[in-house]
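In this section we walk through a basic example: taking a raw amino acid sequence and producing a predicted 3D structure, encoded as discrete structure tokens. The instruction is simple. Fold the sequence below.
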Amino acid sequence: MDQSVKKTVIVAASVVAAAAAGAVAWWWHTRRQVEKVLLGLPNGTGNISTGIVQEVIDTTNEIMGRSYFTVSELTRSATATARGINNTPSPAVRAKLQALITECLDPIRRIYGRPIIVSSGYRCPELNAAVGGVANSQHTTGEAADLVPASGGSLAGIFRAAVQFGGFDQLIIERRGASKWVHVSYGPRMRHTILAYNNGSYTNITTSWESYIANFA
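The resulting token sequence is shown next.
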């Protein structure tokens, strides 16, 4: 190759590489700033501010071809922060959380087509006990997440998207007092079980979920 041409190619490649690196750096900076705003909002998922911020994050992810969720998002906990609990996952748990995101949460989010907020993800044993979780909860192994819609979304819509996706271990529509959420897990057992939880009582609705959701309010 002619030396002048070679030099031009090298310069062009350097410019492209720098631009790509700059784009990635911009994405991470933007995401960090947006998440700081999200962390500073009142604890009450589903309010309009949270929904707008989550939509900004999702849009940024789509532009950059990134996942809709992060491991840090699934380990964040207001209870852990308030009580000084170290909710840092082990490398093995981090790997399970990443699998949960890639193989389950992202596909559900794509089908649902709207922002989804993770209200609870990984819980170390101490945090799990603090929030009243059962000892064998899949939250403690990094295999489960609780999901709620951003403002204007639908819990039933998230549930239906998860059913349509189908690649889950357990899917549970849960109600405790005035709080409602969708619990989804992904792990080696892959039982494909669909349950309803209503203030302490579980019902298997694997074959009757459509009628249950139609009357869920």
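Looking at the output, two observations stand out. The mean pLDDT is 82. Residues 41-214 form a domain with the Muramoyl-pentapeptide Carboxypeptidase; domain 2 fold (CATH 3.30.1380.10). In the next section we compare this with other chains.
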